[in-house]
Design brief:
The chain has 97 residues and is of the alpha+beta class. It is 13% helix and 26% strand. It has one helix at 84-96; strands at residues 22-30, 36-43, 54-59, 67-68.
Length: 97
């Protein structure tokens, strides 16, 4: 039976209306250095924002604490990037650096 590892983000004390108050659906990229970049779906805890928002978090290795990158989401309806097709074109350079 395969082992499943579920990364968790740092403890976050955001307001209920923050775009990343709640998060789910993590996807990870492991860099050659062993560091990990995690992309996650963020949403408000009070349901005040609609649409897809994606954020990034980083860790020194797969079993370390994942620290959210500060600022606005990298994908958001507010900046015209809230679709998967646009996301693919914008995300790879951000993640792979």
């Amino acid at each position: 039976m395969p082992m499943h590892i579920i990364p968790s983000l740092d403890r976050y004390n955001a307001s209920a209306g923050a775009w990343n108050c709640a998060n789910n659906n993590p996807s990870a990229v492991v860099h050659p250095s062993g560091k990990v970049t995690l992309m996650y779906h963020g949403s408000t805890c009070d349901n005040s924002l609609k649409g897809e928002r994606l954020g990034l978090a980083d860790a020194d290795h797969w079993n370390a604490s994942y620290i959210r990158r500060p600022g606005n989401p990298i994908i958001s309806p507010a900046n015209g990037t809230g679709s998967h097709e646009v996301a693919k074109r914008r995300l790879l350079p951000l993640i792979l650096g």
